[in-house]
Structures are given as C-alpha cells and as structure tokens.
Amino acid sequence: MGHQFVLLISATIFCVGAAGFLIRKNPLIMFMSVELMLNSVNFLLIGFSSFQKSMDGQIFALMIMTVAAAEVVVGLAIILTIFRTRHDMDVDHINTLKG
Amino acid sequence: MFELDLFELTKATVTTLVGLTAVLASLGVILCSSPIYCALYLIGHMICLALLFLLYNAEFVAAVQIIVYAGAVMILFLFIIALLGGKKEIQEPSTERSIAIAFVATMLGELFLSATVGPTRPIEGAFDAQTVAEVGGSAKAIGLELFSRHVVAFELASVLLLVAAVGIICLSKFSYVPLRRRMK
C-alpha cells in the first residue's frame, strides 16, 4: 500500500484523538485520546521508514513510545492524586488551585 | 508472476481492513461513555496498529507495541479505572463541543488535502528488506542504528524514564493531605 493510505489513516486517527481530547471530560479518556494521537504519528513514522528504506523512523517510533510511557505514568499519578483529594473526575470542575 | 500479484493483492486487502479496523476502534475510544469500554477499544486499536507495523516490515516495533502499549500501559489504565470506578459520562451537545468538532473537522480536511497533493521527494536509505534480513532481522538492525547514530537520544530516553520514576514516587509519597499537615 502506498504513501496515501498511510497518510490518510494516520491523519484520521490523529483527528479522532484530537476530537476525543476536546469533547470528553473524563481525564482518563482524555489521556487515551493523547495515546491515539501518539500512536497515529508512530504509524506514520513506521510507514515512511518502510518507504524510505531507513531505520530512523522506527527509532523515532521507539522514542515516542518511551515518552508516551513516561507521560502516561506521571499523568495517571496526577489524576489519582486529584481524585484522592477531590473525589471528582470532571476536568471542568478542576478550575481552582486552592483545593 | 500471478502468484506474486495474488500475494500483493492479499497484502493490500489485509492492510486496508486492518487500517479501517484501527480507525473504527479509535472512534469507539472517544464515543463510548463508559471508561472500561474505551480502554478495551484502545487495546484493540493498539493491536491493529501492531499488525500494521508488521505489514510495513517493522517486526521489532510491533513486538514493542504489543508489550509496552497493549501490555503495560493499558493494564495501568485498567488498574486506574478499576481503582477509581468507571463512572459513565453523560454527553450532551453544547457550544464548546460544536466548536471543537468544527475545529477538528477543519484540521482533518486540511490534512487530507496536504496528503493528496502529490509525492514527496523519496530518499533512498540503506535499509531495504533484503539488507535488514542480511543484518539479521529488524531488532538487530535497530540495535545497530540505535547504538551507533542515536546513542544520545537513547541515553536521554533513559534519563527521561528515571525522571518519570522519581516524579511518580514524589507524587505518591508527598500527596496533598500530608503536605497540609506539614505546613501547619
């Protein structure tokens, strides 16, 4: 399959992830949407590394996976801390720094 | 000749089907109201992406995708959902939602336009499928590249993981309530 397929699938998944990040209010699902966006970029890198016959895309994909793992761990810890202190899972209600 | 064509045709069909399944699973992630179903859809999406990686000659990254994402990260998500209790979310239409959807639809249109403009200038790298097979597989080729030309990025990634581990210990040890008690 050619460049266009990779570009179209990747763009669609990225936009679905962006839409999910904007319209959902549960922070867990917002994090899942961020994962969707990161994964779409991974797919783009892998596809183009296959087309360009280069390993750089795959190494970049591995780096993105590392960043995503670190980001998810820290983000989930923050969500857990917020839930422990506020017992509320709606991001629209977390609008004060006073607690 | 005919056999080769049949192989290519099957590969193209499988790639299209898996790609469409990945898109549908990602739609399931953002449209389900219960977080646990969202997480299950996301696992399906990541497995589809791992299959796509396999179809584009990236065996090692496909294995890492299954182990790290569908394994570790999603199990972490499921644990957190089990801990916090997956409450259903009521989705009602509002102005902000329509603005967000219009923004994303515009972005999708622009991306599609830029994707269909035409071919970019191809760069011929050193790693076609035959070279990778001669080196000894995808994992070995990635290792050779990673430890020769991308050592700094590799070391920085390890520092990043260490910082994340230290940060999560700080977050879980010095949470809000003891902090307030200490400040009194």
Outline:
Chain A has helices at residues 3-23, 27-51, 56-86. Chain A has 99 residues and is an all-alpha fold.
CATH class of chain A: Mainly Alpha
The whole-angstrom Rg of chain A is 17 Å
Provide the succession of SSEs of chain A: HHH
Low-confidence stretches of chain B: none
Radius of gyration of chain B: 22 Å
For the terminal residues of chain A, how far apart are their CA atoms? 52 Å
Computed structural class of chain B: mainly alpha
The protein's oligomeric status is heterodimer
Task: Summarize the largest interface: chains and residue counts.
Answer: A-B, 69 and 83 residues
- The geometry of chain A reads as elongated
Identify low-pLDDT runs of chain A.
none
Mean pLDDT of chain B: 85
| CATH domain topology of the domain at 1-88 in chain B | Four Helix Bundle (Hemerythrin (Met), subunit A)
Helix content of chain B: over 70%
In the CATH classification, which architecture of chain A applies?
Orthogonal Bundle
Distinct helical segment count of chain B = 8
Q: Could you say what the CATH architecture of the domain at 1-88 in chain B is?
A: Up-down Bundle
**CATH homology superfamily of the domain at 1-88 in chain B:** NADH-ubiquinone/plastoquinone oxidoreductase chain 6, subunit NuoJ
Q: Structural class of the secondary structure composition of chain A? A: mainly alpha
Major pleated sheet of chain A: none
Topology diagram in text:
The complex is a heterodimer of chains A (99) and B (184).
Chain A: H1 3-23, H2 27-51, H3 56-86
Chain B: H1 2-31, H2 35-55, H3 59-84, H4 95-115, H5 129-135, H6 138-148, H7 151-173, H8 176-183
